[in-house]
Amino acid sequence: MGFVPLGAAVVLGSAGGCTRPRSGPVTTTDSGSESGRLATSDRAALTVTSTAFGAKGAIPSRFTCDGENVSPPLAWTGAPHGTRSFAIVIDDLDAPDPEHPKVVWVHWVVADIPATTSSIPEGGALPRGAVAGMNDWKKPEYGGPCPPVGRHRYLHRVYALDAVLGLSAPSKGELERAIKGHVLARGELVGTYEKAR
């Protein structure tokens, strides 16, 4: 649970069930600043976009299991002052069947994207320092939409954080526990996909 403070110390809250220790430090700035209050109230918002599809639009098959299975380009704006890193999570909200959803299926997790970054290109080439986390196929990589039935919604969420987490291939749950109290802003983009029959 150790970390190296750059400003005032901030101790991360933890939820039960975290079995993997952190591999590195969490560093943060000025825990009593406006950023801490934003993290509580979620007043700040990022704008997340993709040149591949629009809000609630169809995701091209290139980015799915029917195509090349590469990650779509993502960009974001509106990061507040004090942002130290970004994180990305992509989820299928409708697994396995949109008529009877049972689970949220995790397609991509990325942590520690440098604060100077405002986009990830098609194919998911990550900037130096960024770390790919575990998806629900238990792989540290992007896994494209591959719905067994129906048109599913895919939530692309970007977080602006006041910390560098220092995690090693985190699961979504581990990432969510680590960012608790460190979210300055967040934004999302929903795309949809249904397999060709």
Description:
- The chain is mainly β.
- The chain has a single domain, classed as Phosphatidylethanolamine-binding Protein (Alpha-Beta Complex), CATH 3.90.280.10.
- Helix content is 8%, strand content 31%.
- The protein contains two helices and eleven strands; from the N terminus they run E-H-E-E-E-E-E-E-E-E-E-H-E.
- The strands form three sheets. The protein has a six-stranded mixed β-sheet. A three-stranded antiparallel β-sheet has the order 2-4-7, with no helix packed on it.
- The chain is globular.
- Residues 1-42 have low confidence and may be disordered.
Main beta-sheet strand count, sense and barrel state: 6 strands, mixed
- How many domains comprise the coordinates? 1
* CATH homologous superfamily placement: PEBP-like
Note the total helix count. 2
What is the percent of helical residues? under 10%
Distance between the termini: 49 Å
CATH topology: Phosphatidylethanolamine-binding Protein
- Overall mean pLDDT score? 84
What is the number of strand segments? 11
CATH C-level class is Alpha Beta
Radius of gyration: 17 Å
Give me the strand/helix succession.
Answer: EHEEEEEEEEEHE
Strand order of the largest sheet: 3-11-9-5-6-8
Q: SS-based structural class?
A: mainly beta
DSSP strand content: 25-35%
